[in-house]
Amino acid sequence: MDAAELPLWQNIGIFIGAGVLILIVGTWLAGLADRFADRTGMGEAMTGTVFLGLVTSLPGLTTSITAAIDGRPSLAISNALGGIAVQTAFLGLADISYSRANLEHAVASVQNMMQIVLLAILLSMVLLAFSSPELTVAHVHPVSPAILLVAGFGIFIIYRSGKEPMWQPSHTRETVADVADENNEQENLPLLALKLAVASLAVILAGVVVARTTGNIVDQTGMSEVVAGALLSGVVTSLPELVTSIAAVRRGALTLAVADITGGNFFDVLFLFAVDVAYLSGSAFHSPGIGAREVFMTALILLLNMILLLGLIVRQRSGPGNIGLESVLVLTLYLGGASALAFTDFAG
User: Fold this and answer.
1) CA 326 to CA 234: how far, in whole Å?
2) pLDDT < 70 positions in the chain
3) Helix (H) or strand (E) holding 51
4) What are the domain boundaries of the chain?
5) Which residue from 238, 312, 308, 224 is spatially nearest to 81, judged by alpha carbons?
6) Given this model, what pLDDT does residue 105 score?
C-alpha cells in the first residue's frame, strides 16, 4: 500500500519512528565524529563544520529534495529554513547542558565566528532571491549557483583561518582547548569510515521517510506546508544536531558541539540550491505558496545568529541559570517566532 493511502495515525507513527531513528543514529554520530577528528588530525572545528555538519544535515537535505521532486517547494524551503532556526536554538539547549560556564565563552574561536558571518552572507543572498524579479536560467534562479560558489569560497577561508589565524580569542580558566585523545589517534580509520558511512545511509533513508509522511500529514490535516516544514520536518530532521551537540558537550568536545550546529546551519542553506535544482517547474524561490512566511523565517534566522555571534565576541562567563544571555535571547526569540509562524496570518 502507498504511504499516501495510509490513515493519518499511521503516517504520524511512521513520522515519529523515522524521528526516533534519526535521534539514535545522531547520538552515535557524535562519538564517531570526535574520534574521526582526532584520528585524521582535522580538529574538532573543521570536522564539526565540514564533516559532522554535513552528515547530520543529510536527513534535512533528503527531506527538502524529496519534497521538491514531489512538487512541494514551500515544504522543501520551509524545512531548510526551519532546520536552521531550530538548530540555532539547540545551541541554547547545549549551553544548558554545560554547567561549568557559558558554552559560547568556553569555545570562542575565529572559525566559529567566521561560520556565522558566512551564514549571514548566504542568508542575505536568499533574501535577495525571494525579493528579486523572477529570473531563471534553465529553471534555476541565478542566486542559487552564486550561493554554491560563495559557500565553497567560504569553506576555504574558514580552513585557512584555522591554519593561519590572524588573531585568537583570549584564553581564560573556562576556555576548553581542542586537544586530541591519544586513544582515538590509534583507531582503525577504514573501520571508522565504514561506521560513519552506515550511519549516514541510515539518516538519509530516514529523511526520505520524514519528507513523504510530512507531505501526507499536510494533505490529510490541511496544515500549511510552511508550518509543517518549519515546525515538523524541520525540527525532526535537525535532531542529529541536537543530540550530537549535547553528546559532544558531555564528552568534553565543546568545539565539536558548536561547530556541528554552525556547520549544520551552513549546509542547510545549501539545501536551497538543491531545492531550486530539483524543482523543475521554475525557480523554487518564486513558486506558488512562497511569500511572507519564508521571508520572516529568513529574517528570524539572521537575528538569532547575529545574537549568537555577539555572544561569541562578548564571551560572557555566565548568565541566567549559568548560561549566556545570548542563549536566553535565542531560545526566547525562537519560541516567539515559531508561535508567530504557527498562529499568525501572514500577508503574501
Assistant:
1) 22
2) 1-4, 29-31, 33-34, 37-53, 99-102, 104-108, 162, 165-187, 251, 253, 317-322, 347-348
3) none
4) 3-343
5) 238
6) 61
The conformation of residue 287, written as its DSSP 8-state character, comes to: S
- The pLDDT value recorded for residue 2 is 52
Identify which of 109, 112, 106, 113 has the alpha carbon closest to the alpha carbon of residue 176: 106
Task: List the Cα angle 117/107/186 in 5-degree steps.
Answer: 110
CA distance 272 to 108: 29
- The whole-angstrom separation of Cα 261 and Cα 255 is 10
pTM > 0.90: yes or no = no
pLDDT of residue 241: 76
CA distance linking residue 328 with residue 108, whole number of Å: 18
Q: At what angle do helices 53-69 and 254-278 cross, to 10 degrees?
A: 20
Q: In sequence order, what DSSP letters do the residues of 200-227 get, joined into one string? A: HHHHHHHHHHHHHHHHHHHHHH---HHH
The whole-number pLDDT of residue 74 equals: 92
Cβ neighbours of residue 56 under 8 Å, at least 6 residues apart? 26, 29, 203, 240, 241, 244, 260, 264
Give the pLDDT score at 135: 86
Reading the block at residue 190, the C-alpha cell is: 577504514
Residue at 322: amino acid letter: N
Task: Round to the nearest angstrom and report the end-to-end CA distance of the chain.
Answer: 37
Architecture of domain 3-343: Up-down Bundle (1.20)
Q: Please calculate the CA angle 301-56-246 and round it to the nearest 5 degrees.
A: 80
Cell numbers of 155, please? 569553506
Q: CB neighbours (10 Å) of residue 174?
A: 16
Strands, E assignment, 263-340: none
Q: Strand, helix or coil at 137?
A: strand
- Residue with the three cell numbers 541559570: 321
**Burial status of residue 155 (CB atoms within 10 A of its CB: 0-12, 13-18, 19 or more):** middle
Cell of 246: 549535547
Cell numbers 542553506: residue: 269
